[in-house]
Each structure stands twice: as C-alpha cells, then as structure tokens.
Amino acid sequence: MPYVNIRIAGTLSREQKARIAEEITDTLERIALKPRSYTYIAFDELPDENWAIAGKLLDED
Amino acid sequence: MPYVNIRIAGTLSREQKARIAEEITDTLERIALKPRSYTYIAFDELPDENWAIAGKLLDED
Amino acid sequence: MPYVNIRIAGTLSREQKARIAEEITDTLERIALKPRSYTYIAFDELPDENWAIAGKLLDED
Amino acid sequence: MPYVNIRIAGTLSREQKARIAEEITDTLERIALKPRSYTYIAFDELPDENWAIAGKLLDED
Amino acid sequence: MPYVNIRIAGTLSREQKARIAEEITDTLERIALKPRSYTYIAFDELPDENWAIAGKLLDED
Amino acid sequence: MPYVNIRIAGTLSREQKARIAEEITDTLERIALKPRSYTYIAFDELPDENWAIAGKLLDED
C-alpha cells in the first residue's frame, strides 16, 4: 500500500497517466512517508454514458 | 459526495442507465438530503466471464 | 450481482439506510430487471476529514 | 456478501478466472464460513498503461 | 498488483484474515503466476446495518 | 468526477490528508484539465491487520 484508484469519465493520454502517476506517488512519499515502490495506482476510464452527475449521464445534451 | 458505484455483469442500455441514475439521485436527495448536483454515479459493466457467483463464472453452462 | 457501493461523508441513520436500500433494489429490479435477491448494497460512511471536494477536506471551515 | 474484487494489470484466461473464483469461494467457505452461494467475485483486468507501481506505468520500458 | 478487496458484513478474527490472505495469495501465485510480494489484499468489515441483500439490511429481523 | 480513492494501512493526520488532497486535486487540474470543484477524494484508513502483502498481514512480526 497505498493503493490509489483514479476514476474518470472519458480518457487520458498515456502521457497524462504517466505524469499523474509520478506526481501522486511523489505526493504520497513526501507527505505520507510511503516508499515509492509500495504505491499502486490504478486508472479507470469510463465511457461518458457510464457516469452521471446530478442525475444526468455525462453524454446528455 | 455521495459517490455511488453500480457494478453488474452484462450490459445496460443507455436508456436504462439514464433512468437508474435519475432514480438513485432522487432517492439520495429525498432520503439522505444530498443535493442533486453532489451525487456522482459510476456504472461498471463487466463481461459475464469476469463475474462469479457460488464459485462459478456467470458464462458457465 | 448487481453490487452497489454507496459512499458518503458523514452518517446515515439506520432508517435512512433501510429506505435507500429498498428503493435502489426496487429501481434495479424495475429498470435493469435484476431479481431482488441478487442485489447487494454496501454503505461506506466516511468521516468528514476523510473526504475532499475541490482540494479541501469537508471538515474545513 | 462476501464481495471480492480482484484487480490486475493484463489479462487472465477464462480458465484462470474460473479456477481462481472456485478456490477463493472455497477459501471463504472453509475459513470464514460463508455459504458458497453468497460469494460474489468480480475481476477487473486493466491495461498495463492504466496501472502504476513506484510512479511508473507498467508498460514503461 | 494484483489488488484484492474482500468486503464482508460482520467481522473476521485476525486468524481468519491471516489464513484467507495466505490462501488467496497462494491461489494467485499458482494460477495467475503473480509473484507473492506483488499481491495486496485489503479487508473491509462492514456493520450488518451497512449491508443490504434483496432490499433488506442484514441486521433486520 | 474525477473520483479518487486513497487506501492505506494505518492512519494519516488531518494535516497530511489536507495536504495530499490539495496536491492531488492540483495534479488533476494541471495535467488532466479537471476543474478543481469536480474532484472528489476519499481516504480509507485500514487497520494493519486488515491489509496483507505477500500473504502476510501487516501487523505480523
């Protein structure tokens, strides 16, 4: 541990995921004192029609 | 918040997801007094071979 | 399945959880055609200091 | 319940998932005394570029 | 990875958790060929009133 | 969205959680272009006996 799960609607580029993973791992090392090698980060990219805010799917007009 | 994650095996139509999201958001507003705009709902639709009940994958004969 | 996970900051009364579970199970039966006995619902009630929106913990002034 | 979520990077064959589901259901029956029919197991197979360890995506050289 | 999340209503003894963790780690090593040191297992023990099956909380008469 | 779930064994101070939430929200704003107000972060702090690595609970000698 830590295990971090990042869930978004839509997609991220590989480059975005690489930079986010690097920054979050760094944040947890500096602030929570977790060794870098312990941090797992899993990204879930969901279709817009699988995410709702305020009762409306995100692909709605 | 709230964050609601609905996980099923198989798929739902867009219309089913829209109606489920609307009803659950309404439920949480009426009963838990959560403002509609705060409620996130994420649907995960898994292949039948990725879900097991009673030790058997759901696509098993 | 379905498995539904409802995560909120703060607490719900037992009565609120009972009514929410009943309504969501009903929603999934009517709209997604899932038999009532298959639906699992798990509630996670997190302390306000364990939930952040917009970069601020919810217990912040 | 129990609800078990197994998340990996990469894929498993159908046969691997079937055997893992059978063994874990058996483990929970023997040790936790949970009836087999109650145990749900959901597998999530993520692309290597969606999983990071030690700040590096798994598809990195 | 793998990351395994086991969610139950009620509690498990420390001994039960130790034996379950050992067996599941072994299962993933033998069948999915995942090195033992990579497997994280997290147990969530929920109060009976936070889990519903078939629309009823588990602490209901 | 995004919804970020950070799961650790042990505890974090309120100050650590506040700083981690701020940094991760900032990371997702800069790199993934997600408006700050959309980002939810939920922390789960598990007892050491509820987390296993390599088949051993973390509270084991």
Automatic annotation (TrEMBL), chains A, B, C, D, E, F:
Domain (4-oxalocrotonate tautomerase-like) ranges: 2-58
One annotated GO molecular function? isomerase activity
Alphabetically ordered keywords of this record: Isomerase
Transmembrane annotation, as ranges: none
**InterPro entries from the xrefs?**
4-OT-like_dom, Tautomerase/MIF_sf
Q: Please give the family membership noted in the entry.
A: Belongs to the 4-oxalocrotonate tautomerase family.
Q: PANTHER family from the xrefs?
A: BSL4019 PROTEIN, TAUTOMERASE-RELATED
What name has this protein been given in UniProt?
Answer: 4-oxalocrotonate tautomerase
